[in-house]
Amino acid sequence: QVQLVESGGGLVQAGGSLRLSCAASGSAFSINTMGWYRQAPGKQRDLVAVITRGGITNYADTVKGRFTISRDNAKKTVYLQMNSLKPEDTAVYYCNAPDLFYSGSYKNYWGQGTQVTVSS
């Protein structure tokens, strides 16, 4: 059984910072790409940032220059450092591993989500 467990969400004032973490638990699996998505009420789930196993990153235009994605392959953990937060960043943030290899096949895994609320 493989799980992605997020932590680090919360309430912060505009201009503040938060750091999200997502740890993959279980055994006998490997992860290539890891990423973060977010979903605001009444809106679709959108990509925030992704990082490959080799460290290549990609960001949504709305967060470029403010958010930084990183990962620790040994710990099977991905991070999202969020600076200069804005009220429009308020959403549930989901960790994603779209090509996690487990039990003989590649699968798409999601975390349970963590709420980020930015007050004005």
Write the layout of secondary structure elements.
Elements: E1 3-7, E2 10-13, E3 18-25, E4 29-31, E5 34-39, E6 46-51, E7 57-59, E8 67-72, E9 77-82, E10 91-102, E11 105-110, E12 114-119
Parallel strand pairs: 2-12
Antiparallel strand pairs: 1-3, 3-9, 4-10, 5-6, 5-10, 6-7, 8-9, 10-11, 10-12
Can you put this structure into words, describing what you see?
The protein is an all-beta fold and 120 residues long. 0% of the residues lie in helices and 59% in strands. The chain has no helices and twelve strands. The strands form two sheets. Strands 2, 4, 5, 6, 7, 10, 11 and 12 form an eight-stranded mixed β-sheet that branches. Strands 1-3-9-8 form a four-stranded antiparallel β-sheet, with no helix packed on it. Strand 10 (91-102) and strand 11 form a beta hairpin. It starts with a strand and ends with a strand. The mean pLDDT is 95.
Summarize the entry for a quick read.
The chain has 120 residues and is an all-beta fold.
How large a portion of the residues is in β-strands, by DSSP E? over 45%
Can you summarize the main beta sheet?
A: 8 strands, mixed
The overall pLDDT, averaged over residues, is 95
| Count of extended strands | 12
* Tally of helical segments: 0
Overall 3D geometry?
elongated
Estimated helix fraction: under 10%
Unreliable spans: none
Order of helices and strands: EEEEEEEEEEEE
State the end-to-end distance. 40 Å
Rg: 14 Å
The helix-and-strand class reads mainly beta
